[in-house]
Amino acid sequence: MLSDPLTLELVPLLLVLAHHGKYTGETGLWAYYEICSFLNAGATENWDVAQEVPYAYQGNEWVGYDNVGSFKMKIVTTLIEGSFSQ
């Protein structure tokens, strides 16, 4: 949850879990299609530069996730760091 939707200041993750997913019923874990529904319902999508991942928010609700861009960044980082080298 956002502590203040106007500043986009996030409440520490250990203290607050996301609401349960509409379809999965899971608290703190949404399926990608639930995130897509959240975005289609008017949530604002933003990019976390430090973590190189997108997140979306609407009111005091927010969700972080991966998309094609963040997966590409992870692959490039892994290849550059040599994690898959033999």
TrEMBL record:
Keyword Signal applies: yes
Top-rank taxon: Eukaryota
Pfam families: Glyco_hydro_18 (PF00704)
Residues making up the signal peptide according to the UniProt record: 1-18
InterPro entries: Chitinase_insertion_sf, Glyco_hydro18_cat, Glycosyl_Hydrlase_18
The name this protein goes by in its record: Chitinase-like 5
UniProtKB keywords: Signal
Presence of keyword Membrane: no
Organism annotation: Apodemus speciosus
Domain GH18 as annotated: residue spans: 1-86
